Predict the structure.
Amino acid sequence: MEKRVLVLNLDHSPVAVITPQKAIVLLLLEKASCLSNYELLQIRTVTKSFDYPAVICLNHYKNIPFRGVLLNRNNLFRRDKGECQYCGSKKQLTIDHVIPRSKGGKSNWVNLVTACHRCNVIKGDKSPEQAGLQLKTIPFKPTLSYFLAEYAERQAEEWLPFLDSKVVQ
């Protein structure tokens, strides 16, 4: 599997994840500078070899419109680590409104959690306290850095010093 390269803006905020080929082009055109390389990996051409970049930083600030993390089923399951937030089960997962919609609960990051079918049925149209359930973690709105840090822990440890995995409350 090909390793990816994290691109940071001049203020060190994450901008994108790109292929190493594109990163080498940005480095050669002096549009970016390398902050970290993957150890023991190189990119070879017929006449040269290059260190395999892990993290690059743009040399000029690019104004990029705010791109928050999309609220969708897949991202919600990723945030909750694919387990029920009431009992910890990883089977028959659904999405639950902590404060039911009938009681004014909104469909947003801080009111939605992953729940197994059993716990969702038990909870029904009640609050967790009324149903005798307790949330394992408090729902939060994740940032792009949060998901990139999750990826980095599995695939690219070189990214971790450059990512702020804190969440936006």
User: Anything to note?
Assistant: Residues 144-155 form the longest helix (12 residues). Residues 83 and 90 are 5 Å apart (CA to CA).
